[in-house]
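re: ur question from earlier - yeah i can do the single chain one, its not a big deal. heres the input i used so u can compare w yours
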Amino acid sequence: MTNRPIRVLVAKPGLDGHDRGAKIVARALRDAGMEVIYTGLRQTPEQIVNAAVQEDVDAIGISILSGAHNTLLPRICQMLREQDMDDVLVVVGGIIPHEDAHSLKQAGVAEIFQPGASTQSIVDFIRSHTRRTALGETASEAGGGPAR
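and the output i got, formated as tokens:
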């Protein structure tokens, strides 16, 4: 096991044209010692998953405001499973109606952060649920979620 920081891909799928929140979260993750790869606006699920594979990420943070979450997020999670990356943590921020949360979590989303969530709560969740902590140990060794 290498001693490297948690790697997080931050992505904006679909037609969202607003990325201020994604950039704020990306900066908070970076300031917390994580490596952050920001893919930019208007990414397809295929582009997001391909970047996750190429970058060997521990987590993916999706920012979505467009209302296409019920289509795009299950597709991303399915494609990760098809790439044998079902241990990659998927978290979502944005405007997600409470009634959609259960089906998104069943599809593979680990957590949904609504507007107003603190960046510290996002950092803490990723640290405690990824396969690798900032110290290079697996999350299960650190008391978190499953290891890869």
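The mean pLDDT is 88. not sure if urs matches, ping me
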